[in-house]
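Protocol step 4 of 6: structure prediction from sequence.
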Amino acid sequence: VLLVGLSVALKLGTASFAGILVGRRQFKVPALGGVAGTGVNIAVVVTTIGYLNLVALGAGVLASVLVSQGYCVWWVRRHEPWFHHLPRPIGRAELRRVASFAAPLVVISVAGQVISATDLIVVGAVATTAAAGLYQAGSVVPSSATMLIFTGYDTVYPHLAGTTDLDGQENATRFLTRVAAYVAGAIFAMVIMLRVDVIMVVTGHPSA
């Protein structure tokens, strides 16, 4: 739970860097960071699950956040030297203007992280630490798949909004949906192929 909480804190603390990338239409940077983070997450879990057990899942999440957000921070600091992470005093008019369209996005992002963290805390409080680890293990695949789909749509939607080609909009959406379906199928096939390891992680013992 502590490792997951630290991961959430780091992600929230560096969320402004991801916002700069979206504003600059550099969608490939968070996408590459997410892919690298997912790969590191898998590598950490696979290499440490034998002796860290369920703690390896939290360590994998923390390593994933460090890699993905670290890449975004590195890119912004290199290509956008004007941006300073520490806030500066601003006027009420400017704050009201920015909050009018940014506040809902911030609430949605924070709510998603808070829900994940509170779920783990509640499960750990009413059950055991092992149950919290099992909950995290069960949510890794669907949450990672959802983040991948959101990244794809975040990339496509600005282009869809900037064109008047109705057929092109439909074709782009259809293509992205097809890609998401293939990715989901590949993930489920991988889970089936690794069913013995998955059952071992979730239940703590091999299938009878």
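Step 5 (inspection) to follow. The helical segments are 2-13, 15-23, 28-52, 55-79, 92-126, 129-161, 166-193, 195-203.
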